[in-house]
Amino acid sequence: MEVNQAKQEHLLALKGLHMEISGKFPTLCKPNPNVYLMRLTKPTLFTNMPVTCEDRDLPGDLFGRLMKEDPSTIRGAEALMLGELLTLPQNFGNIFLGETFSSYISVHNDSSQVVKDILVKADLQTSSQRLNLSASNNAVTELKPESCIDDVIHHEVKEIGTHILVCAVSYTTQAGEKLYFRKFFKFQVLKPLDVKTKFYNAETDEVFLEAQIQNITTSSMFMEKVSLESSMMYNVAELNTVETEDEGTSTFGKMSYLQPMDTRQYLYCLKPKPEFAEKAGVIKGVTVIGKLDIVWKTNLGERGRLQTSQLQRMAPGYGDVRLSLEMIPDTVNLEEPFDITCKITNCSERTMDLVLEMCNTCSIHWCGVSGRQLGKVSPSASLALPLKLLSSVQGLQSISGLRLTDTFLKRTYEYDDIAQLCR
Do 142 and 154 fall into the same domain? Predict the structure, then answer.
């Protein structure tokens, strides 16, 4: 009797908290199992509404004494809304993409007859697929009056939009009649983060990725991990820490909290792997960079995780011949020669026979022979070109005046504003 009474009290409490699903019920003259559903979530901190007044007002210190006697307030900080007690969820709450949806399903025999061969099935219908969430597909032999079948389901939410949880129950009456009914529960999955990305193509083959992550929920988030899983052609370096003698310190501080509607910027540098670095044609056509992996925690440690789709950049156009700087000094002395090293890469699909011409400007003068042959350069091949210059004007100067001519097609490639240096 005590066990049955405890189950009845449990079901009454469940009916007060559950989100009942609309559906068709069997007729009242037949055994009537029923389905109850409650979402399983962490409790929340109880918040009280403090009421205060001046000491010379009519209530005097009455409100203050009542708040001190209230067990839900924090001792010494009774006027704060935050309390020390936990409260059970009073409603369904919000479900965000990347979180785990957990639910308690109870099938209770409300009739006075025994039902047999009870099979409970829980499916989750999304806009693109239907998933079976039932822990077991085996039928229960019989269910006595005032007894119940319990099940807990879990699902990591990977789609936004409308979700429908379909609970289907089939059973057999004592007379051998097979009955079946379904109940539906509809809920929305919201987007927790807004992710924006920007790509910057460096003069070398390096690619910089800036990721802007905004918390668009109403609660704070602890950002446990934000990493970039690069594609097979790149190595990634995270630029979100400041290196010290002992260890690296995050640029966001020790407590990595992201407040509601706040935005945080993450920066990554991708370098081609050595086996692909010399293949100019391969690197030129690579648009897939990788994907972001974001892990966070909310409230009392509820975890969420999101992975973006493959991030793609706009491949830079280098033309047939690419000229990049390998070495250049930061500052130079006036009217003193200095050295730079250029790298010339054949990005076309044919062999080129190149001739180098150097044209002086009003501030930069080239030291060397202009019009010299550089030789033949195969497709995707590169050659290093050391050059000597001289600056005759003070201030920030731009290096210009390089010309490369392909003798096969009689085509000239002009390179101005290659770099800037300071006298």
Answer: yes
Domain count, the chain: 3
Nearest to 321 by CA among 413, 203, 410, 418: 413
Let me know: does 244 contact 284? Beta carbons within 8 Å.
Answer: no
- 197 shares a domain with 179: no
CA distance 160 to 308: 13
Q: What b/e readout covers 288-319, taking b as 16+ CB neighbours within 10 angstroms? A: ebbebebbbebeeeeebbbebeebebeeeebe
Of 190, 220, 246, which marks where a domain is finished?
Answer: 190
What's the CATH code of the domain at 135?
2.60.40.10
Indicate whether 39 belongs to any domain.
no
CA distance 11 to 4: 11
Q: What is the pTM of this model?
A: 0.67
Shared domain check, 261 and 300: yes
Give Cβ neighbours of residue 284 (< 8 Å, ≥ 6 apart).
315, 316, 318, 347
Which two structure tokens, joined as six digits, stand for 231? 């594609």
Distance CA 174, CA 180 (A): 15
pLDDT at residue 329, as a whole number: 86
197 and 311 fall within a common domain: yes
Is residue 189 within 8 A of residue 39, CB to CB? The reply is no
Give the residues of the chain that fall short of pLDDT 50. 1-29
- Give pLDDT, residue 166: 92
If we measure between CA atoms, which residue out of 70, 90, 91 comes closest to residue 81?
70
Domain containing 156: what range?
Answer: 94-190
Helix (H, G, I), strand (E, B) or coil at 421: strand
3-state secondary structure of 412: strand
Structure tokens at 323: 């000229």
| Domain containing residue 290: CATH number | 2.60.40.1230
Are the C-beta atoms of 267 and 202 separated by less than 8 Å?
Answer: no
Predicted pLDDT of residue 267:
94
Same domain for 197 and 168, yes or no, is no
89 with 40: CB under 8 angstroms?
Answer: no
Domain assignment of residue 81, yes or no: no
Is 220 in the same domain as 289? yes
**CA distances in angstroms from 161 to 122, 123, 164, 247, listed in the order given:** 19, 16, 10, 43
Q: So what's the pLDDT on residue 283?
A: 59
The span from the CA of 410 to the CA of 403, in Å, is 12
Give the residues across from 412 on adjacent strands: 405
Domain-terminating residue out of 275, 292, 315? 315
CB 157 within 8 A of CB 101: yes
